[in-house]
Structure formats: structure tokens, C-alpha cells
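Large ribosomal subunit protein uL15/eL18 domain-containing protein
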Amino acid sequence: MGFWHKEPKSQDIHLRLLVKLYTFLARRTHSTFNQLVLKRMFMSRSNQPPLSLSQMIWKMKFPGQEGKTAVVVGSITDDVYRQFCKAPGTPHSHTKHYVCSKGQKFERVRVDGGRIYKNIQRGKDSLFSKWENWTTHVKE
């Protein structure tokens, strides 16, 4: 058997109250469920990975999970936030531009919001075309 912590390392008062409640429930009801939740509350933050709402729904659809209650000791990431987050190209957004084709040539769409690659395709005055004009004038 592994070593069990006797109390959480965190000084969070809400977590401490929940630990008091679940120690009482685990002692009085002799339920393995309450003991397991208590054990998970003692774990460090690195051992309480976040779980997305869609993953939890997907796992609860497995056979034999009907009518059961899911308890997550850790943070649940909200998928609605992921869907309605900042648009690609705006500052501090972690979303990437949609690229139909794969490969190094097509990955340039993601550089500078796709502006450089579009300008090269259209033949407009871009950073690269300015550099080419400058080098041709220097050579002559």
C-alpha cells in the first residue's frame, strides 16, 4: 500500500472544509467512494489534471456508466470558452489560422496573420517584394 497524506498541503479554507466533511463521511459511512474523494483531495495540484466537459460527457457514455454520478477533484475546463475565445491574429490569442493544406509552404499563412503570404500570392508590395526591389537596385 502507498503512503496516504493526512492533510492537504494547500491552505485554502474551502478545500480544508471539504476535507473535514469527507473525512467525516469516509469514517462514518465506510464508503469507498468517500475515501477515494478524500484521497484525491490530498493530492498535489500536479496530480489533479484538468478535465474538459466534453471529455467527461464522453467518458460517462461508456457502457455501465448509466445512472452514475461523476465527481472530478480538479478543475473542469469549459468548452464554451474554447469555442468563443479570441479570434486568430488578435493579440494574446492562442488560436491558429485555418489552413486547408499541410506543409511548410502553406504554414506561412500563420505568419503575421497570413498577410505576408497573401501579398506574395497577389503580387502586391510586401516585405519580400520590397527586399527584392532593393537587391535588384543594388546589383545594377
